[in-house]
Amino acid sequence: MMNIREALASELADVLMVEQLAFGQDDEAKLVEALLEDPSAKPIVSLLAFKKNQAVGHILFTKVYIAESENAASLLAPLAIVPEAQKQGIGGRLIDHGLQKLSQAGVELVFVLGYPKYYSRFGFKPAGALGFEAPYPIPEQNADAWMVQALQPNIIGSVRGKVVCAEVLNQPEYWRE
Length: 177
Fold this sequence. Notes:
Layout: E1 2-6, H1 12-23, H2 27-37, E2 45-51, E3 54-66, E4 73-81, H3 90-104, E5 109-113, H4 116-119, E6 125-126, E7 132-133, E8 146-150, E9 161-164
Parallel strand pairs: 4-5, 7-9
Antiparallel strand pairs: 1-2, 2-3, 3-4, 3-9, 5-8, 6-8
Helix pairs in contact: 1-2
C-alpha cells in the first residue's frame, strides 16, 4: 500500500533523504532545499510517496512563466525514487498525482527536462517543436528532452515563448540533459 501526499515542512529531512538516495549524491537535495526556500518558485507542489510509513519517492513542481504570457505554468524537477523502490510505478503515480493537483489549481502547462521515452508515457511532448523555448538552450541532440504537457484544453498552439524559471534554477548547468 502506497500513500502520496503533500510534503510537510517538518518532513524536509525525508525529502532530502529521498533525493540523496535516488541520485547517489547531494546535488539534487541541495537544489530541492534551495527551491523550497526560493520565493520565485512559489507556488510549489512538493509530494512525498510513502510505503509502510517510509518515504520512498518525491516530486517537486515549481512555478515558471512564459515570457509575454499570463498563462499559469509549472516545472517538474526533480522526480526522485529511492533505489529499492524504483521500477514499481511510484514515479508515474507521483507524476499523475502532481498533474492532477496542478490542474485543479488552474495551472495550464507543465514543463520538464527529462527522458523523452519516460515522460512521453505521461502525456509530455517535445516543447521546442510546440513553440516553447527553454530557459537556456538545450543541445540539439537532447532537444526532445525539453517537454511540455497541457493541463487545460486549447492551450498548445495559443501560447508560445521562452519559459522563465525560478531564480535558483536560472543557471545554465541545470539545463543540460
